[in-house]
Protein: Putative MFS family arabinose efflux permease
Amino acid sequence: MTQTFSGVESRDWGGHAKGSPEYRRVLLALACAGVATFAQLYSPQGILPEISDSLRVGADQSALLISVATLGLAAAVLPWSVVADRIGRLPAMRYSLIAATVFGLAVTLCPNFTGLLVLRALEGAALGGLPAIAMTYLQEEIAPSHTAVAAGTYISGTTVGGLLGRLVAAPVTGWIDWRWGVGVVVALSASAAAAFMVLTPRPRGFVRTARADRRPLSRVLWLNLRSPAMLALYLQGFLLMGGFVTVYNYLSFRLKAPPFLLPSSLIAFLFLAYLAGTWSSRRAGAIAGTRGRLPVLLTAIVIMIVGVLITLVDSLPVIIVGLVILTVGFFGAHSIASGWSAARATVGRAQAASMYNLFYYGGSSVVGWAAGLVFTRYGWDATALVVVALAVVAGACAATALRSPRRS
Structure:
């Protein structure tokens, strides 16, 4: 027997089987956690034009409210993974959600743009506990044969959260103002966080590493970064997420301008495309279980590229179709790459999964902001081609480094 966080389990624990009550509770709980995290993280994205007007800042500056939050998240994932190794996955995720709710409420009360940036960075850092730990938690609590599907279910929860955050914030902003819009999303996120805390069963797979057996963090990170396969997976997160958040950051500015001239209350409904990602993330995990992860990942990247190219057409119905296709491809790819990074790691699984999230949200922050400079100066067509180029590089890295006879 080996002492765990609960104090009773052994290393022979095989994970909750698909269909068991505990399996369903874990998946539902993590779906709620995904909602709580990503509703808060992205709630300002659909109302960036209103924030820009209210605070008298440019499009690229207002987008910093997304970038600093994701940068804070990226910076925090490794520290959260270390905390989770010490106190357990579940307690760390609970503390993460509580802290994020406090900072989220503070955002709604801050009177100036600089203060908002600081609070959004802190909110992102608090939210980092969920993506830093969730995949490792699934690997420990779910039977190995079902982790790809479970990972897809968690990712589908994140898409619902991202959708709700945008859909709720925009109409409330139209009726009152953007601070109330963000505040209502924080309240909804707090409710989802409470559901997560109630639903999660007692952890059975966490084994606290003995102090004498702990590798230095720098050594664990280096062992993962020197692996071409792990580095390729991390680059999937950086490049694909960078491109994806670029589209959603600046499409609203494009559609508010001629020839579309759409109000934000209507633009917010474009985020319903996230429902396609809810479906594709889970579907990609299911297909990967029988066909292998690499073919699904490459197919999803191609789908994403097709979707971006379609948005070049100056027709609102066509742009909507392109956005849906882009979203299907992105969340399918993200579902595979994020779950694969935890499954493929041979050392420091929690830190390996956190490194994926560091690259993922680093891409959101760096590329999401830098692409705004392209959009401001050269317009949508150049921005879309940047996104395509990022996806092509991601696909080339995957095809080169991830070819392996094993499917895991």
Remarks:
- The first helix runs from residue 21 to 42.
- The CA atoms of residues 50 and 245 lie 18 Å apart.
